[in-house]
Amino acid sequence: MSVHRVTTRTLPEEPEGVRTPLRGRDAELAFIEARLDALDRGEGGIIRVEGPVGIGRSRILAEAAAAAGRRGTRVFEGAADPDEQFVPLGPLLDGLLSGEEPLPGAIRLRDLATTPGQRFWLLQELGDRLRETARNGPLLVVLDDLQWCDDLTLLTFNTLAAGLSSHPILWLVAVRGGSVPSGVRTTLDRIRRAGAHELALGALDDEVTARITEDVLGAAPDHDLLRVARRAEGVPQLLVELLGSLREAVTIENGTARLPAGPPAPRRLPSVVRRLDQLSDEARELVHTAAAVGAPVTVALLAELLGRPSAALITAVREALDADLLTESGDRLAFRHDLIREAVEAGLPLPLRQALRGHAAEPPPGTVSSPVERPGPSAGRAPAEAAEAGGARPRDVTEADRLRTAAADLAATAPGPAAERSLKALELTTADAPERPRVIAETIPLLWQTGRAAQARELGASALAAGGLGPEDEARIRLALARLAVPFDFSEAARQARAGAALPGIPVDVRGRLLAMLAVGLSMAGEHTAAEQVAAEAWDTAAAAGDRSAEATLTTVRSAVSFHRMDLGEAFRQAERAAALADALGVSTSLWVPEALWHALLSNTTGRSAEALAAAEDGIRITREQGRIAATRMWLMTRSRVLLEAGRLTEARADAEAASETADDDLGPGNLADVTGRYVMMRVALHTDDRRTARAYAAEARRMRGDRAPVVRHFGSWMLALMADFEGRPDRAMAELDEVMTSPAADRPAYAGLVDPADAPVLVRLALRAGAHERAAQAVTLAERLAVLNPDLTFLAATAAHARGLLDNDLAPLVRAVRLYEDCPRPLARASALEDAGRKLAATRKPDAVPYFDTALALYARAGAERDAARVRGRLRAAGVRRRPSTAGLSDAWPELTAAEIRVVRHVARGLTNRQVAEHLSLSPHTVSSHLRRAFTKLDITSRVELTRLVRRRDSGE
């Protein structure tokens, strides 16, 4: 019997010269065919094709020319070039006088074109030649990129098209949408009044995007890959280039294209490279700087970063706009498309990107350049008292306003420089200034994002303790403190938000955000009924204020409510909507960052591990580049959960450790760390038989049992139950779950007694060991109900079948679970089902059990789950088969180390730093540190020098 039927292949190289079919333009092509039919009947005219860069204008023109050629129509094709606008009539003459069949008298026409004072006669000759040629059959004249045409070409085209309108000549011209030179706009207006037909090319829809993805990759995309393809937003050129950059990362399994490791980091796109190469050095530098900043940016900030006056950037800005790389967004410059920004940024070396962001932190000329003092308890003192205490003297209010504006500009992509400017603005703002509370409220989230949460909390607490705040000022500071508290203390976040929302007379938008944060805090704490009630009120308030940020956060709460009700499909749809809203708004406007984090965790829970991992890796990469220490830590904790469920235990532990190393100990353990990193460390310790670590995290779990947040108490109970079972005390394990499994249904976490749907079989097995048959049946009922409510999620059907097979001691549902798990990215859950099916078979048919045990053993060994692998080897011995401990991934020269540890060790022995090793191996520096630390322990060495000597000895065979 086969227990794995997946056929996998990598993508072949794309054949040279192969062009994918034109998709999504059936209506446009049908219209052109109709105009060619009319041309065959002797009717000429003009068709104008318009659309943004990359939308497929040139492809439409090429298809039209090919269609005309098949009919026997004579075709002339010309195109303008931005570098050749100084050549009068160049595009039109190239189209009419080049090619296999140029216009008659081509030599004379070229002579006229190059002779001064002969342009009138050239125009007459061109008209005559076209008229003469049209008598012998219809003509199609194609002119691409009209926006780059010189004035004489525009005049000649307009004159000829009007003068020859009665002849069978069809003019097909393409022009870029949006802003074009005035001469081009005049020509477009003239041909519109003359009756030109217009084809406006829009973005392609999702169905067409999927078909193009299949054309390029050779197989239909799965959900995760299609989600990546949607990032092109229906722009064909960007889509094809994006897919081309993914080819090495895509595999085809059973006819479906997938990204098993998630999408790679952004790469340079050919069309963007070409446009960059056409820019002047000044414009290219401006575009690079804008890419490094990331968010829409003012010209003033670009001028400051580039060290030039704003007026000196006029030409460079215009050039970047003309190249369609940048566009105007109010008073700011933004990239035409986020993929363009990523492609530009990908072409910059990482040190240069960091230097550009670091440059933003330098104080501008004319300001104080000394290090910024961090406000503490003295932040509310009067100016004289501050001066006596060594603080700064009063500064110009205008300078403080300028610094606040600069901080707001930088907040989206460079929170470190933004925080320093906000602190400087605070320093320059006197204690009695009416705007001071607002500056404090702006500074708190920036400090938190850059890893200074304790300082941020002290700043807010000092302001509240000083008193004298108006309701609006107090509300804004409490909102900032609520945002700060969410990762550390769910209940404290709810308390701050509740207190702020209760203040009288505050603006509707501030109250809406406070209610949204209250709903988030309650939801994360596990108080689902209260969260739903608050969210309903918050929706009305946010709608009245038109607050999209609050809408994104409240959509996340809706998703969590649906999750609690076991409607995972609706939960996932709401999570996708919340993440899309938050992404469109930008991270700096988010009330927190729950939208993307929750979406990733939910993707993982519903069996979409690749999508969850890709989201987490994107989050880590982007926040690390931007210096968002707090967000990076949260993404690391999120990825550790995903890696745990994906059976990548070593990497999961490394992420959890890395997140722990960056924690702000002054704010306590942290609720988010409790339900991610600490839970992961406990599960990894149990799978790897690391008793010492397991006991340490059991102590953390006992602390969690006393937390104010129900969800934290729940996680603590589950961790203690697992520990008790690990120690062979099933009765104690059941006792640890008493509070969770008997709490009121409204407050009970989803899947009572469980943390993840895959834990249903674990709970059933644990309850049966303790003789608690009723609780085992309760767990099965919940698992089956969850599967019925979510029929599209195979993973849930697999866990339900697995749990039922254990409860009934029935082989059939166990085998069904094994089959269902084959299509699920949960190797440890699949290995567990294989082991249970093998155990049932071994009771009567030992030989039939061996393939199940063997596959389970391979999965456990690959995951690094030594305790589980040892248990299965024992079952195989009982079945009469001996299997040696797996050496998969190990080396004869390095039997102590895993393959990942060996790779790190060899790079370190070459003299590379941890950061250099991380770049070489595409790992995080924290993961490298974790691998190296474990290698040192296993090899019983304490320095890199000892490691280098050991590598040389072993490589030489000593």
What is the CA-CA span between the terminal residues? 46 Å
| Largest sheet: spatial strand order | 3-4-5-2-6
**Unreliable residue runs:** 1-18, 364-395, 744-753
Q: Mean pLDDT score, rounded?
A: 83
Overall 3D shape:
globular
Helix/strand/pairing category: mainly alpha
**Gyration radius, in Å:** 33 Å
Range of helix content: 55-70%
Strand content: 5-15%
Number of helices: 47
Question: Quick one: how many beta strands?
Answer: 11
Main beta-sheet strand count, sense and barrel state? 5 strands, parallel
Provide structural commentary.
The chain has 958 residues and is mainly alpha-helical. The protein contains 47 helices and 11 strands. Strands 3-4-5-2-6 form a 5-stranded parallel β-sheet, with helices on both faces. A 4-stranded mixed β-sheet has the order 1-8-9-7. A hairpin with a 2-residue loop joins strand 8 and strand 9. Helix 24 (508-525) runs antiparallel to helix 25, helix 26 (548-564) packs parallel to helix 28 (594-605) and helix 33 runs antiparallel to helix 34. It is globular. It starts with 7 loop residues before the first strand and ends with a helix.
Brief account:
It contains 47 helices and eleven strands. The chain has 958 residues and is mainly alpha-helical. β8 and β9 (256-258) form a beta hairpin.
